[in-house]
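Changelog-adjacent note: as of this version, every example in the card shows the full chain rather than a window. The one below runs 157 residues end to end.
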Amino acid sequence: MSTRFERHHRMKRYLDAFKGEGESKIFSTLWDLFYLSFLVGLAADKKTPEAEWQESMEMEREMANYSEKRFAIIATLFIKKLNKRGREVKTTIDLENELNNLVNSKNLTFNEEGFTLFNEYAYWGFEEIEKRLARNPANPATTFIAIFENISKNLDQ
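Full-length structure tokens:
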């Protein structure tokens, strides 16, 4: 079980294709690509179990600064988990119990299950981007469009 954000070991190398000069660059940080990988996995509802990872690396602290968006990220994963389970939340106690399965209520961040689930979606999503959507991301705009179309297609289903 993860206790932090862990990324695919090839992600940093892949990010270089997206970095550009000036204001037109697609991604500025590794976190951008990591989060996009999570969305690809989440939209497809596919993840790579932690036990099957070839290798992972901890997200650098400055890259994993998600505090501004953490509640939106937690809510996105929480809703996906509830929808997938088909669970009906009828009381605030039910809601609190379900939320406690993903979130540490003391520091308001993911707990082990939450980090693991997020990382598993992101790991699968990155492999999908790297192997099937954009093997050679020489053109960042074309790559981003392919990824966006894939996410949209999966969300429409």
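Structural remarks: The beta strands are 6-8, 56-58, 103-104, 109-110.
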